[in-house]
Amino acid sequence: MSKVGEEASIQKPFGFSPSYTATMVTSFQQAGVEAYLVSLTYDFAKLGLEGVKFRAAWGQGWGRNDPVTNGDFANQEELDLRFVYAPPRGPLQGLRVEVEYIDWTVYDDALPSEDLTQFRTIVNYSVPLL
Asked: Highest mean pLDDT: which of 22-26, 58-62, 122-126?
């Protein structure tokens, strides 16, 4: 859980974002934000699938206050799912494949809900030079 002071958002480089409530799209670090995040990570190596990991996270933030206009912003929630495959040895060592699903919802009483749904795929390969 996290709570940011009412007067201002976290100022960088003087403060640091509360990464324990940061999600893929939002970090819940604006002025007046209260947030919580619940996550579950599982490493499938115990089942014989080395290099396979899964993470699910769900967070919610509310109570944002704009210090300039003193108006409230919309509450938000986000669901993140991440599947990672990075074999630690063998012919595919150095390969890392990530597949992510993001469902971000912004709630505003005056407007309909604004949704952002994304699928991301990231493929990296480290080439050993030495």
From this structure: 122-126
Q: Determine the Cα–Cα distance for residues 17 and 35; give it in Å rounded to an integer.
A: 12
Q: Which amino acid is at 30?
A: Q
- The beta strands (E) that lie in 4-128 are given as 34-43, 52-62, 75-85, 95-107, 114-125
* Tens-digit pLDDT profile for residues 89-117: 999 999 999 999 999 988 765 555 668 89
Contact 31/2 with Cβ under 8 angstroms? no
Q: Could you give the CA distance from residue 102 to residue 123 in angstroms, rounded to a whole number?
A: 17
Contact 34, 5 (CB under 8 A): no
Torsion of CA 113, 20, 72, 112, to 10 degrees: 0
Q: How many whole angstroms separate alpha carbon 51 and alpha carbon 40? A: 17
Q: Which of 107, 51, 60, 127 is nearest to 83 (CA)?
A: 51
Alpha carbons within 13 angstroms on the beta-carbon side of residue 110 total: 4
Say if residue 59's pLDDT is above 70. yes
Give this prediction's pTM: 0.76
Q: Which two tokens stand for residue 31?
A: 């002025």
